[in-house]
Amino acid sequence: MTLAVDKSKARHKRFDASRVPSTPQALALVEQVRKELLNYEAKCHPRRRARKVVDQVRFDRIVSAIVCDLMHGALTDPVAWRHISLSKRSHGKDSVGVPFMTEERIKIIEWMSKPEMDWLELSKAAQVRNPFGGQQSTIRSSGRLRRHMDERGIRFADIGRDGALMGDPIVLRGKKVRGKASSLPVPSGEPADTYRAEMLRINAWLAAADIECDCDDKGNERDSGDRWVSRIFNNGRLEEGGRPTGGFWAQLSGKSRQRDVRINGEPVVSLDYGQCGIRIAYGLLGVEPPAGDLYCVPGLESYREGVKKVFIAQFFSPRELARKPQGSAKHLPRHSTVREVEELILRHHRPLRSMFYSGAGMEIQSKEGHILIRCLLELIERRIVALPVYDCLVVPRSAIEETRQVMLDCFRQIAGVSGHVEIKEGVGK
Predict the structure, then answer these.
(1) More confident residue, 96 or 22
(2) Superkingdom of this entry's organism (predicted)?
(3) Based on the domain organization, do 124 and 212 belong to the same domain?
(4) Residue 90: which pLDDT band, with cuts at 50, 70 and 90?
(5) pLDDT of amino acid 76
(6) Which of 158, 163, 349, 429 lies in disulfide reach of 26, CB 3.0 to 4.6 Å?
(7) How far is residue 261's CA from residue 383's CA, in Å, rounded to a whole number?
């Protein structure tokens, strides 16, 4: 079915061609759609000659990818859309991210939207020339597909991912322009090769791990198979940024994560690096940080959250702050200027003066990323499953002490100073 839809309020996601059927139920539904497409083609668009074997294999892969991503979308949010290019000028890896998604995908999608097929809803992008790039067409599951999913009991566990099609776990972005950063090609050779090998090992370990997640508060199933983690580097440099990101657990609140996630059947705990950025900054200077809570600044003892926000701004800003950082005013003394707050911070952390307004924030984030990756790799050696979330690791409750020691050791090895790890336990169900 082809629709004229107001897409301004739709929640789009990019079409993901890596999805594959992982159970007989899902495979049977994909096969049903494939057979109907071939019958439709024979009746309405008969071919002069049969497809070559290689072409038929590609046709089947396209159908499978489309059906599987539509099913995943139906489970995630049945009213949301997946955007996909239907331009003949864009094909294969350039348009959809994988080489087998050739121009043939266009007619397959259009056929699947026909009333006599009714496997998907299609909203075509307006044919407007736009030198800055226009909207793509969007697709989503039809009511018919969802009914067949219900009949077969299709759930997230029935839809897998082809790891070879997940893309590069190393992502490089350029400098932000108007708040957006474009993707750049990752330089070949080192250190990218090592970073990539590390991430592929981590992702393979997570893919095979026993990780479960309960439904949300509304009873909606969560996709515990969404485990792909990548490293995103910034400003066109592999020396800036690079913290691990991704995975279904990263989308949950801290409370939900500790309440609903289980690893190897166990409740989980979160182990956070406390005052991570400040400690790394001291390490870059070769100076051991003072004892105690580094965000507890004399004269600002009741404004810890505000002090933290000012610290972050000082590390990332290339120039002195003209005003209190966004969102920090309610966490700082009302009648104090940002300059007065900064002076109190500098009085307590004199060695860090040279780190402020130097753009050191990205270098600090890079260190954070390297520390987390080393922790994950060391925990793999110890057969411990850990889920990264910014500067935190989520692990089974039985692995608390071993993970804590690994985190402290890895921090010392890379930052050159002592670390601090805070343990946050939730209430298991």
Answers:
(1) 22
(2) Bacteria
(3) no
(4) low
(5) 92
(6) 158
(7) 18
Q: What is the 3-state secondary structure (H, E, C) of 121-146?
A: EEECCCCCCCCCCCCCEEEEECHHHH
Q: What does the block give as tokens for 401?
A: 């002490």
**Stretch 238-256: mean pLDDT:** 94
Residues 95, 202, single domain; the answer is: no
Query: Would residue 86 count as lying in a domain?
Result: yes
The answer, yes or no, to whether residue 415 has pLDDT greater than 70, is yes
| The model scores a pTM over 0.90 | no
Residue 241 is encoded by which pair of tokens?
A: 């940024």
Main-chain phi, psi angles of 97, to 5 degrees: 100, -10
* C-alpha–C-alpha distance, residues 100 and 22, integer Å: 19
Distance, CA of 347 to CA of 423 (rounded, Å): 30
**Lowest mean pLDDT, pick from 98-107, 264-273, 390-399:** 98-107
Helix, strand, coil percentages (3-state) for the chain, rounded to 5, are 45, 15, 40
Residue 293, CA distances (Å) to 209, 298, 307 in order: 35, 11, 12
* Per-residue tokens: 74: 């139906």
Task: Give a yes or no: residue 21 inside a domain.
Answer: yes
User: Taken in order 386, 210, 75, 88, is the CA torsion positive or negative?
Assistant: positive
